[in-house]
Design brief:
Length: about 350
């Protein structure tokens, strides 16, 4: 059975153009820095984020980990949101592997961190405290609903951080969704920060990989850490080739995913038993809950939807996240709405 798969944009398969580019990719040993396709991808990523250099890593998790380990020493503290992907979903790597202490600040509903809260979290110079080193932002913000933050906000946080001698790392797993949603280029959102990670393997449809971008000096350090983490790959140009196609052809079309998400949300609002989050979707994620009267749990609804050919994720007892992407067309949106109606009628 062919499923309509709305669990995540990570389920996207590479496009035919990507497979062709992969087959033809010129390769070399990237541990020696000799893979021309990897080098080209890294240069593209750096240019698109207005950074000096880029580093191809196997995942967004590795990109965030290498970045935070490059910026922070053992016992240093990183300020991040209490709903940050790095805090919730990266297996505690910054603490397990880097000895980095985290300080969680409440995420605002739009995924931002309030400047006052960041300010209050900065440790005074005192032998009792860890040393505050870094602020981590996330844009779009996954657990806050695929919400985005504006260039002005990013500039404000970075300006504030730099005044206090701190660095800013941006988890921009879906930075191009954030940019396209507000009609700006990604650079506007990444130029102010010290480092940024973004994923090629989500809405951009590449099969594997993320890029970490920052200054030359920072990337040299992160490169060393990538090796320590076992992330030095050899003829990785096969993978990077798909990433190049992703950056060349898949960025602007993300607007289509956002439009589909809006159509999906509009349709689901008409289904009795579902409550779509106010303001959802901001980008390609629709968050919704079961109305109180519905006698099923979210997990039970997930199972019933599956039998009707639609795969979705439950994010809590009564809540779902639906993510649109390249492989979801208008027909898939209609089928999903109809399936929910059938399950909940
Ligand atoms: C997916 C995601 C990551 C991690 O990416 P992986 O490639 O799955 O390791 C990091 N941050 C955010 C916000 C994400 O959505």
């Amino acid at each position: 059975m062919e499923f309509i798969d709305l669990r995540s944009d990570t389920v996207t398969h590479p496009t035919p153009q990507m497979r062709e580019a992969m087959a033809k990719a010129e390769v070399g040993d990237d541990v020696y820095g000799e893979d021309p396709t990897v080098n080209r991808l890294q240069e593209m990523g750096a240019a698109m984020t207005r950074k000096e250099a880029g580093l191809f890593v196997s995942s967004g998790t590795m990109g965030n980990l290498a970045a935070i380990l490059a910026h922070c020493g053992r016992g240093d503290e990183a300020i991040l949101g209490n709903k940050a992907h790095t805090f919730l979903f990266e297996a505690g790597g910054i603490s397990a592997l880097g000895g980095v202490h985290s300080c969680q600040v409440d995420n605002q509903p739009d995924g931002s961190l309030a400047i006052e809260d960041i300010e209050a979290a900065i440790r005074p110079d005192d032998a009792h405290h860890p040393v505050t080193r870094l602020i981590a932002l996330e844009n779009t913000h996954n657990r806050c609903g695929g919400t985005y933050q504006m260039p002005e906000y990013t500039r404000q946080v970075s300006g504030f951080a730099h005044q206090h001698g701190l660095v800013v790392h941006l988890d921009g797993a879906r930075i191009f969704n954030a940019a396209v949603a507000q009609g700006v280029v990604a650079k506007e959102l990444t130029a102010p920060v010290d480092s940024v990670t973004f994923c090629l393997s989500k809405g951009l449809c590449a099969p594997v990989g993320s890029l970490l971008c920052g200054s030359k000096e920072f990337i040299a350090k992160a490169h060393h850490i990538r090796k320590q983490l076992g992330g030095g790959m050899r003829q990785a140009g096969i993978l990077a080739a798909a990433g190049i196609v992703a950056l060349d052809t898949m960025v602007d079309r993300l607007a289509e995913d956002h439009a589909r998400a809006r159509n999906l949300a509009e349709g689901l609002k008409q289904v009795k038993g579902l409550v779509v989050d106010a303001g959802s979707p901001a980008t390609n994620m629709v968050f919704l809950s079961l109305a109180e009267a519905v006698p099923f749990t979210a997990e039970q609804v997930v199972e019933k939807m599956k039998t009707l050919g639609v795969r979705i994720s439950a994010v809590s007892e009564r809540r779902f996240r639906l993510v649109t992407h390249y492989w979801i067309e208008a027909e898939g949106v209609e089928k999903t709405i109809a399936a929910f109606r059938e399950v909940l009628q």
